[in-house]
Design a protein that fits this description.
By secondary structure, the chain is an alpha+beta fold. It has 8 helices and 7 strands, in the order αααββββαβαβαβαα.
Length: about 190
Amino acid sequence: MDKSDDRTIEEIAGHYREILRLIGENPDREGLIKTPLRAAKALYHITSGYRQDAAEVARQAIFEHAGSQIVIVRDIEFYSMCEHHILPFFGKVSVGYIPDGKMIGLSKLARIVECFARRLQVQERLTAQVCHLLSETLPNKGVIVACEAEHLCMKMRGVEKQDSSTTTFDYTGRFVSDPALRQEFLSLIAR
């Protein structure tokens, strides 16, 4: 972190201090004195995706590749914050693609998911962003992304449904025109 990061964190901490006061807490009591700064650092880390370029992450590890009908990385865990309530949602993303002369380093798929997850987000957009970024930066014949997540905005407030989860999909290329290929992906990622 540089000095501008430190200044930003200090400014966020000041807002957290005021929030504590507004909800009826005493930000000067022993247990809360360092809370605004800790919360500010946590929020800054949780939203680090705003300070990353997912396309650049992808471009760093694209290599020649002659084979594979389909490449799948399954169960990439992620943690994000719902943009509607600023509450966490978390789950797993599975990514598949059909190479077209190139492949991407497998760890970069996880880094791309993290770039988009570490922003204020909705699951539908997260799924689409991962899919479309890979479609645009990696030579391919199709990309498919599945995301399953649990949302604390549904568990802690509102409808308070503890066992609910949400699944989203997005796909391009051959996955659009070939339902059997989509089904193969789904069967390969099934638990």
